[in-house]
Amino acid sequence: MTRGRSRHFAAAAVPLLLTLLTAVADNNVTVFRCCGRGEMLDPTDVHGPCAMLPSSLPPDFVPVIFDETSNQFLNPNEPPPAYWNLVHERPPCRPAAFLPASAPLDAPRFVSFLNGTLLAQHWPKSLTVDPGLYCLDRAGALLCLPEEPNKTKKCCGPSAVYSEANGGCEFSGRHDAADLPEDITSGFPRCEDDAYILSGRINESHWPVNGAWPAGGQLRTADGGTLQPREYCLERVLEDTQEPRTWTVFTCAPRHGVDHVTKSYREDIRFTLYPLGLLLSVFFLAVTLVASCMLPSTYHVLHWKCQVNHVGCLLVGDLCLAFVQLSGDNLRGPLCVFTGK
Ligand SMILES: *[C@@H]1O[C@H](CO)[C@@H](O)[C@H](O)[C@H]1NC(C)=O
Ligand SMILES: *[C@@H]1O[C@H](CO)[C@@H](O)[C@H](O)[C@H]1NC(C)=O
Ligand SMILES: *[C@@H]1O[C@H](CO)[C@@H](O)[C@H](O)[C@H]1NC(C)=O
Ligand SMILES: *[C@@H]1O[C@H](CO)[C@@H](O)[C@H](O)[C@H]1NC(C)=O
């Protein structure tokens, strides 16, 4: 009886031991780096080939790694632990989502654990991504997002609308979900380079399949096609006052040959704050300029001349930058060259 039991125990212990052994061997963590040594992602085309790094920068970058056991980040000046295999490869999904790295002093937007799992802040909530489904770079990370539920999406989420003038979502203070299916989620379709078009309106160019909303969120288009819920989202457009009020359909911009492309920086409040900050500094630079002109004692002093030139140049520069920021993608032709875009 006892012998039988212990043999039973031994039989159970063998797979346990094997799991332990593989766990030790698995300590070899493989994490993808998007680019090779001396290269980085090209910020103008993160899905394209890597760009050469300026020789002033170190050829290797150190990813942000969090050690859960000691509850702290690893030293950013030291290479990752030896069992971390950094392999030059891109994640398998197309298109992968790009998450830009945060500014040096800001909290990181994504961080790897020692076991290779990545924790990323991705609107509307954070998510974890397994190693092999993302790659790291000093410019940011490319990741494969999990499958989306089969639901219709309101592009801007609750209590927000889309502003064509700003090229992004705006808080509206009022939650309007009239005519929308009961069970909706938020977000834009996943498009390469985040390029959307306003492709039509409900009941004008797009119709709910079977004339009823809850049909899995599919839409029929004017040319007879069908849009799956992950391929579009619906939103009110602030500037669209046409009656009767209806929902505008946002889809991914076709790859080529489309002029009206709306880039949405919805996930990034900086794109709103940045032009505001620039305009603010334009204002104060102008005040400085006026104030120094009104002080006659400073006239003809060399230092004063330098200062006026300096402030004047800053003012023109900031004004152009703010203009470029505010105009978004509406800027075309020679004006682009003039403002330095
Ligand atoms: C870790 O895995 C990689 C690829 O799977 C292999 O090339 C490397 O030799 C392994 N390293 C160790 C220490 O096992
Ligand atoms: C790695 O660690 C994180 C944080 O504890 C955990 O959420 C994740 O599930 C782990 N991943 C694996 C593959 O064990
Ligand atoms: C989503 O819903 C549509 C319509 O009901 C159905 O045909 C499709 O298979 C569903 N897709 C998934 C992934 O559940
Ligand atoms: C579309 O038309 C149907 C039938 O006329 C109507 O019930 C529905 O409210 C309309 N939907 C929108 C979003 O205007």
UniProtKB/TrEMBL annotation:
Keyword Acyltransferase attached: no
Keywords recorded for this protein, A-Z: Membrane, Signal, Transmembrane, Transmembrane helix
Membrane-crossing residue ranges in chain numbering: 273-295
The keyword Protein transport is annotated on this UniProt entry: no
UniProt signal peptide: 1-25
InterPro entries named in the record: GPCR_Mth-like
PANTHER family (alphabetical): G-PROTEIN COUPLED RECEPTOR MTH-LIKE 1-RELATED (PTHR46953)
The protein's name: Methuselah N-terminal domain-containing protein
